[in-house]
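WARN  no MSA supplied for this record, continuing single-sequence
INFO  ligand: fe (ii) ion
INFO  echoing inputs
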Amino acid sequence: MARRGNSIIKGIEINEIITLLNKAYADEWLAYYQYFIEAKVIKGIMKDAAIAELTQHATDELRHANMVADRILQLGGTPLLNPKDWFTHTNCGYEEPKEFDVVQILEDSIKGEQCAISVYSNIAEITKDKDIVTYDIVSEILADEVEHEEDLQALHDDITEFIADIKKNIQ
Ligand SMILES: [Fe+2]
Ligand SMILES: [Fe+2]
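INFO  complex generated
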């Protein structure tokens, strides 16, 4: 635990920050697995572009889990030790892919990113001017989640447009 580092935290309980970070940590692992398995089972038009995007996101979510775990440890907390706890702590849950169609998978993933954006903007708001280090870390992750949403939405729009064009041409 960083004693001096933690002494600069003002106006917020360290335990409260650890609780928020552990919830986000659960989200990151579930998001990682969701992207990992989506990239495996996805089917349909332009799926290669989607696989590349989903795989990149999986890598990013795992990196986020790493960043959050390191901050929890600095604060003197313990990152969740049992995967069972991911489901009891998660904010965003886990969207089991039921239909493997590329458009459906992208829509599920966009929902997940929108939830992640809410989670990190909330932690940023709570830690602003109180815990500068956590604020910086969650702001960096937040920027990635915003980019994730944008990339998925752009790909989703390209694919749905492409499908609409094909339908028009065969009529
Ligand atoms: Fe993330
Ligand atoms: Fe993300």
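The chain has a mean pLDDT of 96.
INFO  checksum written, moving to next record
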